[in-house]
Design brief:
mainly alpha, two-stranded antiparallel sheet, about 75% helix, globular
């Protein structure tokens, strides 16, 4: 039987923690994206950059939104779990009448809420700097949820398996960051040579970024095969993370 009150309590705890540390959890990622936009706006004004007949800044803006959401979706659960391991407070969750799967679901749901808050805040601020607007709201939410679930599963996986900040940051630096930067956030695949395109063709995150960007343009086309590939990858990551939670690998420091 699902303990809804326990899930609600964990979600409320994480949201309270998110807003109480707003200078790190909200202002920091927003400031980072503003700096990106200002730098590229300055460069574009001098060099008249464009990608696929669009302004370069308008092209990268959706990618910046989803990139920062992905990074924060990974950081939030992994930081929470490692911090609780080091302080010993994770034992309280494990002793409470709530299963480990319910703990995982609580982390995922709270990450979805936090991810949407970060995305909307970035979108509002971007709208004052550039001409950007959502055309397809349904798929905007759909792909945003997909990204949050994947990176939250990744963060939950790392938070359970590792006990130190070095391990968390190492995984972020050598996997999460390269995955973000090699997903077409700052470039179009049409500008790559055929020898390098296969890297993106087999990267499901590239398709998420591509479709998420298309939500800001007219003529969005839902491609079934690529979306099945994305959902299959998300499903596998969810199952692996759930398995680790059930088995309890390294869950107690």
């Amino acid at each position: 039987m699902i303990s809804y009150s326990a899930i609600y309590t964990i979600i409320a705890f994480r949201l309270k923690e998110f807003f109480s540390e707003y200078q790190y959890s909200l202002l920091a990622p927003i400031t980072t994206n503003i700096l990106f936009i200002l730098v590229f706006l300055t460069i574009e004004s001098y060099y008249s950059l464009s990608i696929d007949s669009n302004s370069f800044v308008k092209f990268i803006a959706p990618g910046l939104i989803i990139m920062i959401v992905a990074q924060e979706s990974y950081d939030n659960p992994s930081v929470t779990l490692i911090n609780m391991k080091q302080t010993g407070s994770l034992d309280d969750w494990l002793l409470a009448p709530i299963s480990r799967i319910e703990i995982m679901l609580s982390l995922l749901i709270s990450s979805v809420i936090i991810g949407f808050i970060i995305a909307i805040c970035n979108l509002i601020i971007f709208s004052f700097l550039i001409d950007i607007q959502i055309i397809n709201y349904i798929f905007f939410c759909y792909y945003l949820i997909i990204v949050i679930i994947f990176f939250s599963c990744l963060g939950s996986f790392v938070g359970i398996l590792f006990n130190t900040w070095d391990s968390q940051s190492t995984f972020s630096n050598f996997f999460v960051t390269p995955l973000n930067f090699l997903s077409g956030t700052f470039f179009s695949i049409t500008y790559l040579s055929e020898n390098f395109r296969f890297i993106l063709y087999y990267n499901p995150y590239y398709y998420v970024v591509k479709f998420f960007r298309s939500c800001f343009y007219e003529g969005f086309i839902f491609q079934t095969n690529q979306n099945i590939f994305i959902l299959s990858f998300i499903f596998v990551s969810f199952i692996i993370t759930a398995y680790v939670y059930v088995k309890g690998y390294n869950i107690i420091k």
